[in-house]
Write a structure and sequence with these properties.
The chain has 201 residues and is an alpha+beta fold. The protein contains 4 helices and 8 strands; from the N terminus they run H-H-H-E-H-E-E-E-E-E-E-E. An 8-stranded antiparallel barrel has the order 1-2-3-4-5-6-7-8. Strand 6 and strand 7 form a beta hairpin.
Amino acid sequence: MPTQSLDAPKLVIRCGALLFAALGSPACAGGSEDASPSSHSGRTTSSTGSGLPGSSAAASSAAASTSAPEAPAIPHAGAWSGSFEAKKAPVTLDPGVKDSAWSADDGKAAAGPGTLSLQIGREGAVTGELAGALGAATITGWVDGDRMTATFAPKSADSEPSMAGTLVLDAKDGAWTGPLRASSGDAVLVRAATVELKRQP
């Protein structure tokens, strides 16, 4: 059988065709290369946007909050205690108005000495207890600058006497001083006192 000979130009063309078929067209190859990084980049961006920066930000925030210095305490923060002498408080009525219950109060019940012990928190919250002539009570309040305002209420509904009231104290010369006002649940007993609190070690 006769051997078919190929001249050089045809051989080059055939080799080029084979190489073209193996590698794919430049346009397709270029498109594939362009598309691949883009799609990969898109996936990377999506993954990064939904995960790593958020986690990193949360970790940074947690670290910042952990390492943030605590706010300094207010000057009055700490333990305070003092005493008072509860007495019958005058009740002023409108002209022509009379109340026999207040008139009948001889001022002996819920009258006499009492004590207070308070704790002022770093930011100004006030908690404490009252004992003595006005009964056992729980105190809550707040310090704003050099003014303390607080209320107290019986620890138990069965307390006897059962008195609730208010404190409005001002800080001056290392002490808290001001009026205490209290009344019974039926408002028949009305008491008042002057309070002085000193800082405790």
